[in-house]
Amino acid sequence: MAAITLRRLGKVYPGGVRALDGLDLSIADGEFFALLGPSGCGKTTLLRTIAGLEVATEGAVQIGDRDVTNLQPGRRDVAMVFQDYALFPHMTVEENIGYPLRIKKLPRSARRDKAAETAAELGLTGLLDRRPGQLSGGQQQRVALARAMACHPQVFLLDEPLSNLDARLRLEARTFLKRLQRELGVTCVFVTHDQAEALALADRIAVMEGGRIRQVGTPVEVFRRPANTFVAGFIGSTPMNLLDAEVAGDAVVVAGTRLPLPEPARAVVADGDRVVYGVRPEYLDLHTAPLDDALSGRVVVVENLGSSSLVSLDLPGGDGVAGVGLQVVVPEGREPELGSTGWVVPRAGRSLLYRD
Ligand code: ADP
Ligand code: MG
């Protein structure tokens, strides 16, 4: 087990694509850490650079107390699980799991024992003689995990390990992965583009965009206090409402309505500043009777989310300006009529101001 430290890490691919742009990051020993971001933001490149499968063009990678920046992958004491599992199709499950040990020149009997032991831990006993083509997606994923575990690496690197599983299996595998990581106590870095997966699994999350880290924090921190509008828009099962607004004394004017100025913002904004007012659909209350100091608009869409509904309202724009949309989550049974007027009040302490 080991901590991972990245210093000013950069990667420019031949041809000039800058995939990583001066990343600084510390991942603690034993931490379950998620790299989250949209496709193409550099997640796989970062994981491969930690593994040594890509060479950093700038900066340094430290694992434990060793600077591994210039070490071969095999000497870094990490194991990587690839998105497509990358199992050897012509080898049995036992041979696949034992493969890293063969590379380490362990004798055949020791490899067999270790493969059987690891297979048992992952519920794969009974499948040892099968080939990958004879396994379900979930079983293949466990074989890939078993192969990574077999040589007891200090660090696990997982690239979208759940993305090839169907929705239900994915939830099961998620719980399984979390339990496994707790039991092994191993440092784990996993890549995902799925914010719900990152929030559910990780101790901490780095949200990436364009080769940079936009925020690092616990799931609660990045959900409650996104550092910028990019993170605000990316985290959450429904995107945060981000509305143009203007500071006016101790209030903020949103779509013509004065709302209380969000608390931490008081020191950093001045009267007349143009800002963005952010509030999650879950943190708004919808009323069907007129109310002072509420955002009011017409109900244009009601979407069923299961035990709640997502209501979209059109807020009026000022002087001939097009209206803006606002989304509110309402509990089951509280859905308003389409075309009716709704009055929306943000919950105290749940809204944020941004400058970008
Ligand atoms: P992610 O995993 O977040 O989707 P990647 O790390 O795969 O992102 O890619 C980051 C950027 O680097 C993208 O612009 C991608 O096109 C580019 N890229 C990835 N691999 C290579 C490569 N081998 N050669 C050149 N460019 C690459
Ligand atoms: Mg990727």
Automatic annotation (TrEMBL):
Q: Which GO terms describe its molecular function?
A: ATP binding
Keywords attached to this entry: ATP-binding, Cell membrane, Membrane, Nucleotide-binding, Translocase, Transport
Q: Which residues form the ABC transporter domain?
A: 4-235
Q: What Gene3D superfamilies does the record tag this protein with? A: 2.40.50.100, P-loop containing nucleotide triphosphate hydrolases (3.40.50.300)
Q: Which InterPro entries match?
A: AAA+_ATPase, ABC_transporter-like_ATP-bd, ABC_transporter-like_CS, ABC_transpr_MalK/UgpC-like, Mo/tungstate-bd_C_term_dom, OB_MalK-like, P-loop_NTPase
- Coiled coil residues, start to end: none
Instruction: Name the Pfam families on file.
Output: ABC_tran, OB_MalK
Kindly provide the name given to this protein in its UniProt entry.
Sugar ABC transporter ATP-binding protein
Q: What is the lineage of its organism?
A: Bacteria, Bacillati, Actinomycetota, Actinomycetes, Micromonosporales
